[in-house]
Design a protein that fits this description.
CATH class of one domain: Mainly Beta
Distance between the termini: 63 Å
Structural class: mainly beta
CATH topology of one domain: SH3 type barrels
Number of strands: 6
Strand content: 35-45%
Shape: elongated
Helix content: under 10%
């Protein structure tokens, strides 16, 4: 994978590989399994316009770390599992139908 970092540091190379709780940012919460057996969780954008056939641009779980984004080639993965959809419009409750007589008529005959 390719890491996009804030600044080059050699001291802190170990960063968190999984989210401690459900992420707050919107997107697809995924767990990727690499060919060497390692696992990494991250957030993918929830839009088909940003899908790259060669790989995935992922936001890592440790947003306070040095790594800002990751690019993971498809060939490096054995599998990927979607753990959740964060910020989905399906989770929002819709207003209840108040019936046809809740709005007053402004004109005669309405």
């Amino acid at each position: 994978m390719v890491r996009f970092v804030r600044e080059f540091q050699s001291a802190k190379t170990v960063e968190r590989q999984a989210f401690l709780t459900r992420p707050k940012s919107t997107g697809l919460w995924v767990q990727m399994q690499f060919r060497d057996g390692e696992f990494l969780e991250g957030l993918l954008p929830n839009t088909l316009l940003l899908t790259d056939p060669a790989g995935f641009t992922v936001t890592p779980p440790d947003t306070t770390g040095n790594t800002q984004k990751l690019y993971v080639p498809r060939s490096a993965l054995v599998g990927m599992q979607v753990l959740g959809v964060v910020g989905s419009p399906l989770g929002k409750s819709r207003k209840k139908d108040m019936g046809p007589k809740t709005q007053i008529g402004l004109f005669e005959g309405s």
